[in-house]
Write a structure and sequence with these properties.
Elements lengths: L1 E3 L5 H8 L3 H7 L1 E5 L1 H8 L6 E6 L1 H7 L8 E4 L1 H7 L8 E6 L13 E5 L4 H14 L3 E4 L9 H7 L7 E4 L2 H10 L4 E4 L6 E2 L10 E5 L7 H4 L4 E4 L11 H12 L4
Parallel strand pairs: 1-4, 3-4, 6-7, 6-11, 7-8, 9-11, 9-12, 10-12
Antiparallel strand pairs: 2-5, 3-5
Helix pairs in contact: 6-7, 6-10
């Protein structure tokens, strides 16, 4: 274990850079905070942990780590500098981003995100897709970063259990359709059909869109069908995460 006592330490400077999307993309790593996420990372064999860092108390609570990564003891000042939560648990891990997926593994359903901007929504969508058994989540242009700290907290470790792909949604839709895989959008226009009228299936793509604008018109023109969820009360619409959860659990039949 190595003690780090200065905010000017090169490691601390690098960890600070991981707060930004640019820094994460440069180093291809990100930071998870809190016991649940750190322990989830430690217990997932496919995750590469670069290092673990925390206060003396937090490292003692974490206990013996059966891992060869470096462990850093941080001062309270450095913990406060790195923490992005209101009440920090004072434990962190730097995690290697997985290799970028160049091809979809078309063995199961995919959730496609079209400019979903809120990190909390993106994290919840990743978490729900993983819980539902989806093969992966595709983050299209304009979608919040999968490794934003708020996204990570909302996903609660689901990043470690599902394929995450960044790419051009129209190209990916064309690829899936070429493989005779149906793609469903979400919309309220007149040609949309009620989601219950679509039979559950094993492999498909589901597109959900921006919190305010919904799925973009050019994507809607590319999908095989648009689905809607009836609104029976006084609400104008459903949160994108709630709507996606309803659709994912209805449409997916793992057989």
């Amino acid at each position: 274990m190595e003690d780090i006592v200065s905010l000017k330490n090169q490691q601390v400077k690098r960890w600070r850079k991981l707060r930004s999307r640019k820094g994460r993309e440069t180093y291809r790593t990100y930071i998870v905070e809190g016991f649940h996420l750190v322990e989830e990372a430690l217990n997932t064999t496919t995750v590469e942990i670069c290092c673990i860092m925390g206060s003396e108390k937090a490292l003692a609570l974490l206990g013996k780590v059966d891992h060869l990564c470096p462990i850093y003891h941080l001062t309270a000042e450095i913990v406060a500098e790195l923490s992005e939560t209101q009440t920090s648990q004072e434990i962190f891990a730097e995690v290697r981003m997985p290799q970028l997926e160049e091809n979809l593994k078309l063995k199961g359903p995919y959730l496609l995100l079209d400019a979903v901007q809120d990190p909390g929504n993106v994290g919840t969508l990743i978490r729900t897709a993983a819980a539902c058994g989806f093969e992966g989540v595709v983050l299209g242009k304009g979608t919040a970063d999968a490794y934003n700290s708020k996204t990570l907290r909302s996903a609660q470790g689901s990043h470690f259990h599902i394929h995450l792909v960044s790419g051009d949604l129209k190209q990916l839709i064309q690829k899936m359709q070429h493989e005779n895989i149906s793609i469903y959008g979400t919309a309220l226009h007149q040609k949309a059909i009620e989601y219950k009228d679509v039979s559950p299936q094993e492999v498909f793509g589901l597109v959900v869109g921006n919190e305010g604008a919904g799925v973009s018109n050019d994507i809607l023109q590319a999908v095989d069908a648009s689905l809607y969820i009836p609104i029976r009360g006084g609400a104008e619409s459903l949160n994108v995460s709630i709507a996606a959860a309803i659709l994912m659990y209805h449409l997916y039949d793992p057989q």
